[in-house]
Design brief:
The strands form four sheets. An eight-stranded mixed sheet has the order 1-11-10-7-6-2-3-14, with helices on both faces. Strands 12-13-15 form a three-stranded antiparallel sheet. Strands 4-5 form a two-stranded antiparallel ribbon. The longest helix is centred in the C-terminal third of the chain and has 19 residues. The chain contains 14 helices and 15 strands. Helix 3 packs across helix 9 and helix 10 runs parallel beside helix 14. About 40% of the residues lie in helices and about 15% in strands. The protein has two domains: about 210 residues, Aspartate Aminotransferase, domain 2 (3-Layer(aba) Sandwich), CATH 3.40.640; about 120 residues, Aspartate Aminotransferase, domain 1 (Alpha-Beta Complex), CATH 3.90.1150.10. A hairpin with a 4-residue loop joins strand 4 and strand 5. It is of the alpha/beta class and about 375 residues long.
Length: about 375
């Protein structure tokens, strides 16, 4: 292996830049590191008025929450079965038992009126997941958490910058997570954020994120070296990914305005021919509810023939192999969770969808349902 000193490396770099006609001085300026992770955190803290840490995924944020909330073996967590496995796995991995209740068919979120019957003396927390960025009856959930002294965890992965009764989703509970995965309104490829209500827990959260070290304090000039101090893992995102996210934050209103127009265009054109999503939420998703699972499969095939990719969403966790493996429990009757999961279909909704592409989708859906009459 050939070793090179700093001067030799710079000479080699300059030689290759000249070869490819890259201005050397201009290129060297990019070596000055800008902390885009901090820029994103500052932006989110201003919008949410809470302490925020950027993470490498929303799942990582939930793993941090499981530690912050001191979830232990034997604790019970109440949530919805219509969600991603990431909502529950961090708590299962801490030894908790997961209990599900049915969804509200109007929101596809947890039916808050069913939660109290599932509460026992072992219940430690309630997790609400805002499907499509739509709020459940969060005020009732807050009351229940206060009444029974429970932690309230908001899975706001799909609810970026979404308000409910003038209050930001993700700020009602003790902790929440946001997702910046590639299918979300704002993305960094793979990433997330942790929102913490209790500022006293913030320092512990920085340690959890940095492999159990106090490196966060070093980066903020509080100490001159960092070292291992406690539990943690590698939850820090890449700075280059944060740069990609921050550029989107700078045009936040433009992105939201475009997706809002797309949502209402779908709603206006399709509401009279099929059961459609009623609440706008975060404009992350637009879905329809077919009459049965067979009709959904037929529509998926029809759209695919016309070059349009649609998507189902979650298979309920309690009926999945993982749900059975970890002995999750569904409390009460499953009236809507399974039924609606087998009928829900998401139509394309993303930042690069054009006006003409959307109308092709709309007209193709209309043609399908005209043929069904």
């Amino acid at each position: 292996m050939i070793k090179m000193n700093t001067l030799q490396i710079i000479k080699c770099l300059k030689k290759n830049m000249v070869k490819f006609n890259i201005p050397f001085k201009a290129k060297l300026k990019t070596f000055t590191k800008i902390d885009f992770i901090k820029k994103c955190e500052d932006f989110l803290e201003e919008k949410y008025n809470e302490k925020v840490l950027l993470t490498n995924s929303a799942t990582s944020a939930l793993e941090m929450i499981a530690n912050l909330a001191n979830i232990n073996k034997g604790d019970e967590i109440i949530t919805t079965s219509y969600t991603l496995s990431s909502t529950v796995l961090p708590f299962i991995n801490k030894g908790a038992k997961i209990k599900f209740v049915d969804i509200d068919k109007e929101t596809m979120c947890i039916d808050a009126s069913l939660i109290e019957k599932a509460i026992t003396d072992k219940t430690k927390a309630i997790i609400v997941m805002y499907y499509a960025g739509i709020a459940c009856d969060i005020e009732l959930v807050v009351k229940l958490c206060k009444k029974y002294n429970l932690k309230l965890i908001e899975d706001a992965a799909q609810a970026i910058f979404t308000k409910h009764n003038k209050k930001m989703l993700g700020t009602f509970g003790d902790y929440s997570c946001i997702s910046f995965q590639d299918a979300k309104t704002f993305t960094m490829g793979e990433g997330g954020a942790l929102i913490i209500k209790n500022a006293d827990e913030f320092e512990y959260a920085t340690i959890l994120r940095e492999k159990g070290t106090n490196r966060y304090d070093l980066l903020n000039g509080k100490i001159n070296k960092y070292f291992w101090v406690g539990n943690g893992s590698s939850y820090m995102p890449a700075n280059i990914n944060a740069q990609y996210l921050y550029k989107q934050f700078l045009i936040k209103n433009k992105i939201i305005a475009k997706r809002t127009k797309m949502f209402y265009r779908y709603y206006k054109e399709l509401k009279d021919i099929v059961n459609v999503q009623k609440y706008i939420g975060s404009c992350n998703t637009f879905y329809i509810i077919t009459r049965n699972s067979q009709e959904r499969e037929e529509l998926i095939k029809y759209l695919k023939i016309h070059g349009i990719m649609s998507a189902i969403h979650f298979v309920p966790l309690h009926s999945s192999a993982g749900g059975k493996l970890f002995k999750t429990e569904f409390i009460g009757k499953d009236i809507y969770t399974t039924d609606y999961s087998e009928r829900l279909l998401r139509l394309p909704l993303h930042n690069y969808l054009t006006f003409f592409e959307q109308y092709k989708i709309i007209n193709t859906v209309k043609e399908f349902f005209r043929g069904k009459k």
